[in-house]
Write a structure and sequence with these properties.
With about 325 residues, this protein is of the alpha/beta class. Helix content is about 45%, strand content about 20%. It has a 10-stranded mixed beta sheet, sandwiched between helices. Helix 6 links the parallel strand 6 and strand 7.
Length: about 325
C-alpha cells in the first residue's frame, strides 16, 4: 500500500536547520507528487497583565501582540518565498501564535491529515539538546504520522534542492513497528529512485575468556546470531520486492543497535535512515524507544521515524498548557 502522494507538513522556524528540512521537504513533495504545507509557530510574546496595578493599558498590549504577529508572518512569508525559489509549491501556509511548538505541529498535522511531518533539529547533546532538540523529540513521540528529522551533518555544505535519489538505510528488527516502516521505506525508495539498504542489528553474545575448549562454541554462537537476522532480512527483502522496490544490499551487524545503524549509514554513504519506533511514554519509552531516539540524535543525515498509529496519539502533559493570550483582531 503506497503512502505517497500525501500531505507533507513542513514545520519551520527560519533557522539553518530549517533550511535543510525545507530543501528535503520540497524535493520529496515534488518527487512524490505530494501536497506541501508549511507551518511557522510564532513566539508567545511577553506575559503582559491587564491588571491596572501594573499601569499597562490595553492599547499598548494590543500593539505588542500585533508586532509579534507581523514578525512571525514575515518569517513565514520568507519561507514560502524560499520554497518557490527552489521549485516547490505551497498548498497552504499556516501561522500559529503562542503555545508550545510541538503541540501546535502535532495538532495541525492531525487537522489537515498530514501523512508526513518534516522539521529540522540541531541534534546537540546534553543540556543544549534538552532545550533545542526537545521540539523534534516531542513531535516524534506524539505525531500520528511518520516524522522526518533533518539536521546538520554531511549535508551542511549542500546548496542544491535536489536531495533524492539517494541511499536509504532501513533499520529493522522484525517488530510490528518495523513492518509498518517497511512499507514507508519501500515506497519512498521506489518513488524517489533511491538505493535501499536494510540492516538488522543484534546484541553480541556474552564472551568469556577465549580458550581452545570454548573457541568452537563461541564461533557457533556467532554463526547462529548472524544466521537468524539474515533470514529476517531475506524475508523483509521479499516483502519490499512485493511492494515494488528492490533491496540493493542486506547487512547483519552485531553490537549496540543505535551505534551500528549510525556507523553503517556513514560507511555506505546513506543520506537517509528509516526506522520504526514504538513511541511509548515514560519508562517504557526510555527502554523501548531509545534506539530511534539515539539514532535521531547522532546520525549525520536525515532520519525518518515511523510509528504504529494506534500508539501515536498520546496526549501532552495536561500540566503544561498553551500560552493563552488574547489575540489582536484578525490573528490566526
Amino acid at each position: 500500500m503506497s503512502i505517497f502522494p500525501t500531505k507533507i507538513l513542513l514545520a519551520t522556524d527560519g533557522s539553518e536547520e530549517a533550511e535543510l528540512a525545507l530543501l528535503t521537504a520540497v524535493d520529496l513533495a515534488n518527487r512524490t507528487n505530494s501536497e506541501l504545507h508549511v507551518l511557522h509557530v510564532g513566539e508567545p510574546g511577553p506575559e503582559i497583565t491587564l491588571n491596572p496595578a501594573f499601569a499597562i493599558n490595553r492599547q499598548l498590549w494590543e500593539e505588542t501582540l500585533r508586532e509579534i504577529e507581523e514578525e512571525a508572518r514575515e518569517v513565514l512569508d520568507r519561507q514560502v518565498n524560499r520554497i518557490e525559489e527552489v521549485g516547490g509549491k505551497v498548498a497552504e501556509a499556516h501561522l500559529k501564535l503562542g503555545g508550545r511548538p510541538d503541540r501546535r505541529i502535532v495538532q495541525l498535522a492531525e487537522e489537515i491529515g498530514a501523512g508526513l511531518i518534516a522539521l529540522g533539529s540541531r541534534g546537540l547533546g546534553g543540556i543544549s539538546r534538552a532545550l533545542l532538540g526537545s521540539v523534534s523529540d516531542s513531535v516524534i513521540r506524539h505525531a500520528h504520522c511518520p516524522v522526518l528529522v533533518v539536521r546538520r551533518g554531511r549535508q551542511q555544505d549542500q546548496v542544491t534542492a535536489s536531495i533524492f535519489p539517494t541511499k536509504i538505510l532501513f533499520a529493522t528488527d522484525g517488530s510490528e513497528e518495523a513492518n509498518l516502516a517497511t512499507t514507508t521505506a519501500a515506497d519512498l525508495a521506489h518513488k524517489t529512485g533511491s538505493e535501499l539498504h536494510i540492516v538488522n542489528v543484534r546484541l553480541p553474545p556474552v564472551y568469556i575468556e577465549p580458550t581452545s575448549e570454548v573457541a568452537h562454541w563461541i564461533s557457533s554462537i556467532e554463526e547462529r546470531e548472524r544466521k537468524e537476522p539474515q533470514q529476517l532480512l531475506d524475508a523483509q527483502a521479499e516483502q519490499i520486492k512485493a511492494l515494488g522496490a528492490t533491496v540493493a544490499q542486506t547487512h547483519v551487524r552485531l553490537g549496540r543497535p543505535d551505534e551500528e545503524i549510525v556507523i553503517l549509514a556513514e560507511e555506505i554513504g546513506a543520506e537517509l535512515i528509516a526506522i520504526g519506533s514504538r513511541g511509548l511514554g515514560g519508562m517504557r519509552r526510555v527502554l523501548m524507544g531509545s534506539v530511534s531516539d539515539s539514532v535521531v540524535r547522532h546520525a549525520s543525515c536525515p532520519v525518518l521515524v515511523v510509528r504504529a498509529e494506534k500508539d501515536s496519539r498520546h496526549h501532552f502533559d495536561a500540566s503544561v498548557s498553551d500560552a493563552r493570550q488574547p489575540r489582536p483582531e484578525g490573528a490566526r
